[in-house]
Amino acid sequence: MSKKYKICLDPGHGGSDPGATNGRYLEKDAALDIVFKLAKLLALAGVDVIYTRTRDEDVELHPRTDYANAAGADYFISIHLNSAGAKQANGIETYAYNTTVPESYKLAQVVQRALIAATGANDRGVRTANFHVLRETTMPAILVETGFISNDAEAAALFTDGYQETVATAICNGICEYLGLEVQKDMKRYNYLMEIPAGEFRDTIKTLMAEGIIKNSDGQLDLSYDMIRMFVINNRAGAYK
Ligand code: ZN
């Protein structure tokens, strides 16, 4: 039997600390939503999940890392939304404390790659930062900035269940790839084009929708990962010509 991993999920901010805002949405809310979706997927992959917070409450930084360290978590994943003065700033970036803790940096690279592949978002790369949660954790730790709340298009997506699900699935896939765990791909249903992994998958479904081969009369696609895969394979074989 493979090792049972314990992963501590850390939704940024909470309670009286909203994190970044755009006047309408609060970072702390999307961070918690994404963490819950990620937790569900990690549990399906056989991971033991613990949290630094599960409600909208104040949790300082020290208790977050103390908790993960005392609980003996194997990995620490912090989820945030980015913000910038320039509204056009957009994309995803993943942080590790430095490049000299190879496990953290490698995990950050795998997760970042999975996120960009799934969302098609602007790749801001893997970065290093002297963040408390990355410095004071005794296990490999990463912090994901899942998109900019200050960018109108990204903020709108980040507060939908569909895009949160896409982001959570990508992070889960990255972690599972890194740990060598089986991913439960078929659990997710894809209801909107933007939820489908960017590239050939999304392009194929888009084309087949335009040609009327795939209909979403009620506005929802309701496709599983395997169904999308089948459409792509059939399309490559020229089945819809
Ligand atoms: Zn934050």
Structural write-up:
- The chain is an alpha/beta fold.
- The protein contains eight helices and eight strands.
- Helix 1 (27-44) crosses helix 6 (161-179) and helix 7 (200-210) packs across helix 8 (225-236).
- The longest helix is centred in the C-terminal third of the chain and has 19 residues, at 161-179.
- It binds zinc ion.
- The site of zinc ion has 5 residues, from loops.
In a few lines, what is going on in this structure?
The chain has 241 residues and is of the alpha/beta class. It contains 8 helices and 8 strands; from the N terminus they run βαβαββαβαβααβαβα.
Q: What share of the residues does DSSP label as strand, in percent?
A: 15-25%
The average pLDDT score comes to: 93
Helix fraction by DSSP (H/I, runs of at least 4) = 40-55%
Determine the structural class based on helices, strands and strand pairing.
Answer: alpha/beta
Core attributes:
241 residues, 17% strand, 8 helices, 41% helix, globular, 6-stranded mixed beta sheet, alpha/beta, binds zinc ion, two-stranded antiparallel sheet
